[in-house]
């Protein structure tokens, strides 16, 4: 998505750059007088603000385009360096270790429970003695 956004910003940047160039040419042709100096009294002040706004937007787009390119380059470097693969391998190892710990602790709990409860034979003998008529 960032790559698409970067491409769109780059396209908008070029469009604004062309528009600013055209506006500057029109501005230069519109204000040139006989002595080749700009006559600011004949210029609509809205044109000044419009040109300033367009140059500011153009500068902002340049910065956003540059940031998008930097993020893309960083992502490519990260892929080439294999950092994602290293993270996956370390996560897999941690998962295996945790799984082993869980298995070990459940086995220990089973052993402890087996030690606490009598076996079937002894429980049968105890029950048979309790139910015997001799008592």
Main attributes?
2 domains; 135 residues; mainly alpha; 4 helices
Report a brief summary of the structure.
The protein contains 4 helices and no strands.
Low-confidence segments, given as residue ranges, are none
Q: Note the gap between the termini.
A: 84 Å
The helical percent reads over 70%
Report on the biggest sheet: none
Number of helices: 4
Give the averaged pLDDT, no decimals: 76
State the assembly state of the protein chains: single chain
Q: What is the count of β-strands?
A: 0
Strand-residue proportion: under 5%
Order of helices and strands: HHHH
The geometry reads as rod-shaped
Whole-number radius of gyration? 40 Å
How many independent structural domains?
A: 2
Helix- and strand-based class?
mainly alpha
